[in-house]
UniProtKB/TrEMBL annotation:
GO terms for cellular component: nucleus. Pfam families: SET. GO terms for molecular function: N-methyltransferase activity; protein methyltransferase activity; S-adenosylmethionine-dependent methyltransferase activity. It comes from Daphnia pulex (Water flea). This is SET domain-containing protein. Residues 48-293 form the SET domain.
Length: 497
């Protein structure tokens, strides 16, 4: 879906694991379960900073995670501007400056290694990551992208930079090895699936064969670095999406996933420092969580995304609930009761589960094949939508609302896009919009805000951006009403005269 922003920040990788022994549904740390808080000295990796509100817990299924050591108030900063352990360009990115990660057009090249940078400012940065890590090595090998490679929107050569930096950081800073050692890479699982071969082709082979850096590293180290990035990295981007980077942090990366996270994260695109705030009150003993996936995707899609990219089976309370905590992001209109009731999976954790109408008198069941066929067909239609054609989007919503719950992820993604389209797109700026579109924007924001209250409660980025859009539209509406009232008063005043 072009232009659809789910949240400003998403971790870019995935992992596996079963969840037996997972935290109880309300995520409270339970001293009788297999979850334990660790003596910091026993945990390989980062130790909690002195005076912070969390410690590091560990369970056989989730691995390490952050857990609150005292009650944390909503909006309190839990991790304050944490410096990244390593930063590098995202995979398959457009060409970017190797210091500030802004898009480059190849017109300015690093005088030493000939890789594109944004300007002299980044070329002369003494402490820039490019100068610190790969510049001299690449210059020695005359290893730089060709003109054709720099024209690609998904230049795979950039995939090699972040893993190479992790390997070099490990070699050069033995005191940091403990931090790197503490990060999960899911090596055994990755070896069994396609991603291992993709990393071999896009990272290991170029670094060892094309750039001939065999004296500096080996396949083992590069695969480990790729795994660390896949499992732990957060995406760094700015509002205009010109910055394209990924970063690994020693504390923020330990946050476990929950499809209803209790924090809001934000990375400063200029410094790549990560700040984590509590979105809601977090009681002592509760896990501190973030979401690794897209809030507005339904359970089937979220779980398969988490499995494919973060390699684990999510069994959080939202995934286990057929109605997704009442948000109904996956629910279908029941074909038998003409849409008066909704059909939900009997076992949401099982993709082959039967679906059943929730209407007490109906209880109609449908097989997963039928559901999957319907959803695949609607997904194809959604993928073909032109996002500049708002009428086409509105028609899609109206047409398929007869088969889907109004909050279904296929509709809600488009509604979220339209919330921002109305009021911001050329021809639809707040001042230019008719009353009809202004009230439509407010109605869409209200629908989305109801979902945000369930799925990203508190002061989350998602909730905040919707509230801002709603308030902008509401202000415009009040201003217009005030002007109309004034005009009416003037008219009636004129009549009296
Ligand atoms: C970014 S790392 C988090 C730190 C990691 N637990 C560790 O020990 O290094 C992501 C990995 O943690 C585990 N994980 C996080 N949240 C989980 C959850 N809700 N259920 C199961 N595993 C989870 C998965 O193995 C996932 O690939």
């Amino acid at each position: 879906m072009s232009g659809l922003i789910i949240t400003p920040l998403q971790p870019v990788l995935l992992l596996p694991s079963s969840i037996a022994g997972r935290p109880s549904d309300d995520q409270h740390y339970d001293s009788t379960s297999s979850i334990t808080t660790q003596n910091p000295a026993d945990v390989v990796g980062a130790e909690p900073p002195v005076g912070c509100a969390f410690t590091i817990g560990k369970s056989s299924d989730i691995g390490k995670f952050l857990v609150a050591t005292r009650n944390i108030r909503a909006d309190e900063i839990i991790i304050d501007a944490e410096e990244a352990l390593a930063v590098g360009p995202k995979q398959a990115t457009h060409p970017v400056c190797l210091n500030c990660y802004r898009r480059v057009d190849g017109s300015y090249l690093c005088p030493l290694c000939q890789w594109p940078l944004c300007s002299e400012v980044c070329a002369q940065m003494e402490n820039g990551a490019h100068q610190k890590y790969e510049c001299q090595l690449l210059a020695n090998r005359e290893a730089y992208p060709t003109k054709e490679e720099l024209e690609q929107e998904d230049c795979r050569l950039y995939d090699c930079i972040a893993p190479l930096r992790i390997v070099l950081d490990n070699h050069r800073n033995p005191e940091r090895s403990r931090l790197w050692l503490g990060l999960e890479d899911h090596r055994l699982y990755r070896q069994k699936i396609g991603i291992w071969h993709v990393d071999r082709k896009t990272v290991v082979e170029p670094v060892l064969n094309k750039w001939q850096l065999g004296e500096n590293t080996n396949e083992e180290e590069l695969q480990r670095a790729c795994g660390i990035l896949e499992v732990n990295a957060f995406e760094v981007c700015d509002d205009d999406k010109t910055i394209s980077a990924r970063a690994v942090y020693s504390h923020a990366c330990l946050m476990a996933h929950n499809c209803v996270p209790n924090t809001a994260c934000c990375v400063n695109p200029a410094t790549q420092r990560m700040t984590v705030r509590a979105a809601v009150d977090i009681p002592a003993g509760q896990m501190i969580t973030t979401s690794y996936t897209f809030t507005l995707d339904g359970t089937l899609r979220r779980r398969s995304h988490l499995k494919e990219t973060k390699f684990f089976d999510c069994c959080c309370p939202r995934c286990c609930d057929p109605t997704e905590l009442g948000s109904h992001l996956s629910s279908l209109a029941c074909p038998r009761c003409s849409g008066r009731n909704y059909t939900v999976p009997e076992d949401p954790l099982n993709p082959a589960s039967f679906w059943k109408c929730q209407g007490e008198k109906c209880g109609n069941r449908i097989g997963s094949d039928q559901v999957n066929q319907l959803l695949a067909c609607l997904q194809r239609k959604a993928d073909e939508l032109n996002y500049d054609d708002f009428q086409g989007l509105e028609i899609f919503i109206e047409t398929w609302s007869s088969l889907l719950h109004p909050n279904h992820s296929l509709l809600i993604g488009i509604k979220y896009y339209l919330c921002h389209f109305y009021g911001n797109a050329p021809g639809f700026l707040l001042k230019e919009m008719s009353w009809r579109f202004l009230t439509r924007k407010m109605k869409l924001c209200e629908e989305l805000l109801n979902i945000a209250r369930i799925l990203e409660p508190g002061d989350s980025n998602f909730h905040g951006s919707l509230l801002r859009e709603y308030e902008l539209a509401e202000n415009e509406l009040f201003q217009r009403m005030a002007i109309e009232e004034e005009e009416e008063n003037e008219l009636s005043h004129g009549d009296h005269e």
